[in-house]
C-alpha cells in the first residue's frame, strides 16, 4: 500500500462543534492531565491488577501505547477493512517514568496526525469508519478511562478532566444520558461506574462514525465487556 501524500498546505484543525476548541488542544490537555496523575504513582507497585482488570497497571500502559499509536497509524495508512500492521509496545524493562514518556510520545504522535489530517479523510475502525475528530475522541477516551483504571488500583483519587470528557461524549456517545457531569457520564458509558438510577453497564460500544455519515454506515464490530472484578480484557479497543 502506498501512503497517501501529505498536503502542501496546512490542514485546518478540526474544531468541536459547540466547544470552540480544536480537538488537538483537548487531546493534549487530556494527555497532560493523565500523565501528571500517573506520575504521582510512579513509585508504587505497578504489578497490581488495574482496577477491574486482569492486566496489571503496567500492562495497561502497553494497551494504551498500542491504542494511541494505532489510531495515529490508522489515520496515516487509512485502511478500509483492517487494523494496521504496526503494533507499538513499551520497553518491558523500563521503569514506570520512562514508560510514561512513551505514552507522552504516543499521544503526541496522535495529536500531530489529527492536526495534519484533512476533514474528509476516513479510516477503518471496528466501531465505524472514522475521521480525525473521531480518532482524537477515541484517544481521549483511552487516556482517561485507563488512567482511571490505574489510579484507582493504586489508591489515587482522580477523575477524568471535564472538558475533554464532554467533547469525547458528544462525539462518540451521542445517546449518553443527561443529568450527571461529563467525567462520571464517560465512566458510565465505558462500563466503569454506575450512575444514580443506572446500573453499571455490562457491555458498551462507542460510535466513531461522523454524524453526517451515520445514516449510511452504522457502527459495527463486537461490543466490549467492561472492566469487571474478574475476567481478562484482551480487546484492542476500549
The fraction of residues in strands falls at: under 5%
Low-confidence blocks of residues = 1-13, 225-236
How many E strands?
0
Oligomer: single chain
* Count of individual helical segments: 6
Shape field: globular
What profile does the largest beta sheet have? none
* Average pLDDT score: 86
The structural class is: mainly alpha
Round the Cα radius of gyration to an integer and report it. Answer: 17 Å
Order of helices and strands: HHHHHH
Q: Report the span from N to C terminus.
A: 27 Å
Helix content, binned percent: 40-55%
Attribute tags:
42% helix; mainly alpha; 6 helices; 238 residues
Layout: helices, strands, pairs:
Blueprint: H1 23-40, H2 57-77, H3 96-116, H4 132-153, H5 162-172, H6 182-189
Amino acid at each position: 500500500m502506498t501512503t497517501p501524500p501529505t498536503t502542501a498546505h496546512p490542514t485546518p484543525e478540526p474544531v468541536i462543534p459547540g466547544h470552540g476548541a480544536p480537538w488537538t488542544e483537548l487531546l493534549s490537555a487530556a494527555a497532560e492531565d493523565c500523565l501528571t496523575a500517573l506520575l504521582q504513582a510512579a513509585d508504587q507497585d505497578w504489578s497490581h491488577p488495574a482496577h477491574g482488570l486482569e492486566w496489571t497497571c503496567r500492562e495497561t500502559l502497553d494497551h494504551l501505547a498500542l491504542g494511541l499509536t494505532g489510531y495515529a497509524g490508522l489515520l496515516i495508512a487509512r485502511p478500509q477493512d483492517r487494523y494496521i500492521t504496526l503494533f507499538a509496545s513499551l520497553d518491558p524493562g523500563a521503569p514506570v517514568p520512562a514508560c510514561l514518556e512513551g505514552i507522552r510520545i504516543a499521544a503526541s504522535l496522535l495529536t500531530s496526525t489529527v492536526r495534519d489530517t484533512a476533514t474528509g479523510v476516513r479510516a477503518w475502525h471496528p466501531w465505524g469508519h472514522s475521521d480525525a475528530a473521531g480518532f482524537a475522541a477515541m484517544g481521549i477516551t483511552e487516556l482517561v478511562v485507563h488512567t482511571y483504571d490505574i489510579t484507582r488500583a493504586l489508591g489515587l483519587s482522580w477523575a477524568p478532566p471535564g472538558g475533554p470528557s464532554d467533547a469525547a461524549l458528544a462525539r462518540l456517545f451521542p445517546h449518553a444520558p443527561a443529568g450527571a457531569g461529563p467525567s462520571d457520564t464517560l465512566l458510565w458509558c465505558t462500563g466503569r461506574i454506575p450512575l444514580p438510577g443506572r446500573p453499571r453497564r455490562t457491555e458498551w460500544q462507542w460510535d466513531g462514525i461522523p454524524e453526517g455519515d451515520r445514516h449510511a454506515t452504522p457502527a459495527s464490530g463486537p461490543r466490549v465487556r467492561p472492566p469487571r472484578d474478574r475476567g481478562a480484557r484482551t480487546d484492542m479497543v476500549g
